[in-house]
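FW: tagging you since you asked about this chain on Friday. Here's the raw sequence from the shared folder, copied in full. Didn't touch anything.
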Amino acid sequence: MLVLLAMLFEDTSKQVIHNFPHLLITVIFCIAQVLIYIYTFTDKLSQKLVGILVPIITVAVIVLFPKTVDFTVSEALPDETVLTEDAVVSVEDTDIAEITISNTGEDSSVLIHAHAYGTT
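HL: got it, structure written out here
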């Protein structure tokens, strides 16, 4: 349970940083719940230390070894958008994603290859 709460804390704290104050209560609740679990279910000091270290180590592992992103998807464009043979797609940051035109004409679509999380 402590690992699950630590994972929830890590994920929501990232979102709180970018969209303050959304999910702030969730982050506070996760911290409080870990402390209440440790206080309620442990008797010895060594158990309390292990109970504190498990969530800290979990968050550290998640932060130090982030999820890798590498996927490719083909997206059809809306019916109103029609790409011609000489159409060009530009991306501001090619470290995040590469976009190429896969079909032109009535069934226009683009091929998106993402390398990292972010906006481009």
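FW: The CA atoms of residues 97 and 114 lie 4 Å apart.
HL: agreed, and DSSP finds three helices and three strands in the chain.
FW: great, closing this out.
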